[in-house]
Write a structure and sequence with these properties.
The complex is a heterodimer of chains A (about 170) and B (about 160).
Chain A: H1 5-26, H2 49-65, E1 71-76, E2 81-86, H3 94-107, H4 113-120, E3 138-143, E4 146-154, H5 158-169
Helix pairs in contact in A: 2-5
Chain B: H1 3-25, H2 41-57, E1 63-67, E2 73-78, H3 85-100, H4 104-112, E3 130-135, E4 138-146, H5 150-158
Antiparallel strand pairs in B: 1-2, 1-4, 3-4
The chains are: A alpha+beta (about 170), B alpha+beta (about 160).
Chain lengths: ~170, ~160
Amino acid sequence: MQLTSAVQAVLAAVLAAFALGVAAQQQNPLDVVPDKMPADIPYGAPISLDRAQAAINAAVAESKKRGWKFNVAAVDSGGNLVAFARMDGAQIGSIVIAEHKARAAAIFRRETKAFEAGIQAGNNYLITLDGVIGSRGGIPLLEGGKLIGAIGCSGGTGAQDEVACKAGAATVK
Amino acid sequence: MPKTLFTSLVLGAALFIATEVWSQQQPPIPPTTAYGTPITLEQAKKVADAAEAEARKRNMNMAIAVVEPSGDLVYFRRMDGTQYASIKIAQEKAISAALFRRSSKDFLDRVAKGDLSPMSLRGAVASAGGIPILVNGKIIGAIGVSGGADDPVAQAGANAVK
């Protein structure tokens, strides 16, 4: 049977789409089994009040420099609140968000940006996990490679929050 | 004693007891202290510093929370070694003091006298350690402490700003 070139083109396109569809269905990235666990960071001793406050003060100073007003929370390695400061005029709704970001960064041992990126990439299952928050701005506090706590900022955009809290996290090495 | 005098004495005593019981069962009129401009971070730090100093004087590790009149958290710190339960409790006491415009000890006192109604009020904490912070006679926030000598430490904090 002699098909016209138009019909041939359509047939080829349909076959290609089918092949791609099958290929896409066969590659679920969540099926991959890596050798190493992600975020396998050892726990250290819970951060002291002094160091938590130093981290918060650095985040607040960074915010003031830029005219931003944030809520900043610091938690220990167990995710328990150690210190909190609300800059004058900071958004009320962001109080619990700052704490949530700090806690998530501590109990999951990773920057909350990981959740934001994961959700953006389509891994919506992340939203079903208790304690996760899909917004950057929560940063673990690592001393000598051990997790001693985390800091969380909220009040602006996620990117602004993260700038302030990275300044805070830099006080702990 | 003449019968009529005895009767009136008995009646008088009964009336007295009845009104006492009746008045104790009526909840007190809420304080009418006005709210002022919400406490600033600077003021909150001063309050917490004073409270922490008092706690250290007494060799106690405590959690200290400062809230604004609406109960929203402004400042918090947990002294190293404080029991974890105190993290939430300090905040709840501060919120109670702000929302109800009175020391949380007021609710404790009422419960101790047999009036359990504060326990059914959401946000009321029947435990000492939450005290409103007044500046120029207006409530600008409240302090809540937990983990040790609650009222003296809270009072030391509240006294830090006038």
